[in-house]
Specification:
The protein folds into two domains: about 240 residues, TIM Barrel (Alpha-Beta Barrel), CATH 3.20.20.70; about 60 residues, Bacteriocin As-48, Chain A (Up-down Bundle), CATH 1.20.225. It contains 14 helices and eight strands. The chain is of the alpha/beta class.
Length: about 325
């Protein structure tokens, strides 16, 4: 029996789910949409090159090679400048605009961006309303939040502000900023919001398996989910959830890792190759015991040839 999924979105993960990983993940999963890492907006209209560098898919009509649409995410506190940059992103080919009010990073929060704005529903309203009013109705405006900063006391007020500003879609990471990424995720609180609000919602957080997805959708009362760390741990997780595919085997994963090795070294971040692969393996160890052995075997290596040789030996 297929799970009643309406849409599965690939989450924005700063420094992790970059263009290369989006291309890789959408090639093996039926994602309906990808959200980019955030574009930091301060007090200026950013050069076009900033958008192209973060989202090279804009050169190809804003879609991955597999045909999955890409949406640029903006982060900041100035409603007017965010709206100006939203217009530019749409002109360049972004499929809608996503607004980040959930980033828990201290450096971002200290500069009054991301999750810190959950303390100020009025500011959130102004930003969302300005962006919505600056774009054509056909361009979707989505928003990503957490349940709150330190607690959930302002959650309904925040969601009210987003809804009143006429956002089209609201993704909720089911934890506060203070809770970080510590399990569990409080999906039922999203379900409680559904009783009071009409905006379409997406549930995010702690979805590692098809069973998790089903439980999440039941508790959050939504057929929309966003996957982040779960798809890094099980690379074909969206296909497992939406198409009842079998979890990717270790041998197929090794082939995918070798493909990643080749793609990574063709890009402009090739000097990060070994550290980025090891970062991914930290997630893969959650689902594949063999990944721990691979990580141990390559942790001191930096040469692509040496790393690929080790992968071949463990296949």
């Amino acid at each position: 029996m297929k799970l009643p999924v309406k849409q599965i979105i690939l989450a924005p993960m700063e420094g992790v789910l970059d263009p290369l990983m989006r291309d890789l993940m959408t090639s093996i999963n039926p994602f309906d949409l990808c959200i980019t890492e955030f574009v930091r907006v301060v007090d200026a209209l950013l050069p076009k090159q900033v958008f192209y560098r973060l989202c090279p898919e804009l050169y190809h009509h804003g879609i991955t090679n597999a045909g999955t649409p890409i949406r640029l995410q903006l982060l900041g506190q100035d409603a007017n400048w965010i709206a100006e940059n939203a217009v530019r992103a749409i002109e360049l080919g972004s499929h809608g605009i996503d607004l980040n009010f959930g980033c828990p990073a201290k450096t971002v929060n200290k500069s009054k961006g991301g999750a810190i704005l959950l303390k100020s529903p009025e500011t959130i309203y102004k930003i969302v309303a300005n962006v919505r009013n600056s774009l054509e109705k056909s361009q979707q405006v989505s928003v990503k939040i957490r349940l709150g900063f330190n607690d959930t006391s302002l959650l309904n007020e925040v969601v009210d502000a987003i809804e009143q500003a006429n956002a089209d879609l609201l993704t909720i990471h089911a934890r506060t900023k203070k809770q970080g990424y510590q399990p569990p995720a409080y999906w039922h609180l999203i379900g409680n919001l559904q009783q009071r609000h009409s905006i379409e919602m997406v549930a995010n957080g702690e979805i590692w398996s098809a069973d998790d997805a089903l439980t999440c959708m039941k508790q959050a009362r939504t057929n929309n989910i966003m996957l982040g760390r779960g798809v890094l741990a099980l690379p074909n997780l969206a296909a497992v959830i939406k198409q009842q595919a079998l979890p990717m085997s270790w041998q197929k994963l090794c082939f995918l890792l070798k493909q990643y090795c080749e793609l990574e070294l063709q890009g402009d971040k090739s000097f990060y190759f070994s550290s980025r692969l090891k970062q991914w393996l930290r997630y893969l160890k959650l689902q594949y015991p063999q990944a721990n052995q691979l990580f141990t075997s390559i942790k001191t290596l930096k040469s692509k040839q040496e790393i690929v040789k080790i992968i071949d030996q463990l296949t």
